[in-house]
Amino acid sequence: MTAPSISMAPGPVMCIVGARPNFMKMAPILRALAAHAPGLPTMLVHTGQHYDRDMSDRLFTDLGLPRPDINLDVGSGTHAVQTADVMRRFEPALDTHRPSCVIVVGDVNSTLACTLVAVKKNVPVVHVEAGLRSYDRKMPEEINRVLTDQVADRLYITERSAGDNLRREGVAPERICFVGNVMIDSLLANREHAQRPADTLRAHGVDPAVLAGAGRFGVVTLHRPSNVDDAPVLGRLLDVLAEVAERLPLVFVQHPRTRGNIERFGLSQRIDPRRVVLLPPQGYLEMLGLMAEATLVLTDSGGLQEETTALGVPCLTLRANTERPITVDEGTNTMVGDDRVAILQCVDEILAGRGKRGRTPEFWDGRAAERIAADLGAWLADSRRHP
Ligand code: UD1
Question: What is the mean pLDDT of residues 140-146?
Fold first, then answer.
């Protein structure tokens, strides 16, 4: 085994993205570093975990992300294969470019894979959106979060409860820094450029009258393996969605995993095309427009729970737990799991005008990335002085 080949080299800040939810988190960080920390040049690495035009390229365009300096092109695979491929392909990039630190965001397989490679080469790792915990180790993201946070050097958190989680796990308080939510930076920066839902529907050959007739609509996304990889579970959820659709029309934006499974399990007929508009994965501005105008959102996504809170739109989360408790305590989120009665009751409350309105959590103010830029330069200089 060769010794770690890099040690505190004053190279670029290497920013890692891999999957769709990473892109909206990294875009404001890159912008803030360019504007507020010109002494810290950046480099963008895309692992290629998500690679479809709909899952990747369109979001790069919408968010004004630069073309990646390096694309590792790993693609899909089992967790082991995907994580291992990112690690094998990332190592030579790290050796070549000798970054001063690696910034990872969120909780996807690429986050953990790049973290593991970097820490073993003594390259400082900065984790943005650290400390979130669902306390459900069946979620692959939970494993990615716990392991990344144990070995990362600087931990930027979106809500104060994340700091409590980290301290409970023995993380030294001086590694933790509360900066707010970079994903909400992206939302606020793009809010006024959001695409109108009617235009989004037209672009897919759908007559917007489907929604306009009702005057309101709901937005649905589902992609968690626990909800969509098991035929009876997915079938039950589609049946509940059909009952919701009797009350208000739905726009169901389908992840490739979900669309594939609905077809594979023979569940397509459970979706009534007169009440449910099916769309492929949307660009950032299309999704923002749909959420902002929705009467309610039904989802199992982590990001949508936060975005709906920032938009003040009621969100029903089709999961038993959330790693983002502030969206429930202060925001518009309600956890409903797969409980048919709870889901329909909440929908009826919202339609009666009694949905949660919530308030904007602390530091979800569009300036989280600026706080990171301000902290990072000082922290890097300090780590060089006291390695
Ligand atoms: C990943 C993240 C999840 C995140 C989600 C957002 C992990 C463990 N999971 O899940 O946290 O919420 O991204 O989408 O990292 N596929 C395509 N085109 C693509 C990418 C994927 O068709 O561009 C299909 C493939 O069939 C693939 C499947 O989607 O096998 C799942 O992709 P994968 O990257 O393994 O995980 P996600 O479910 O997208």
Answer: 98
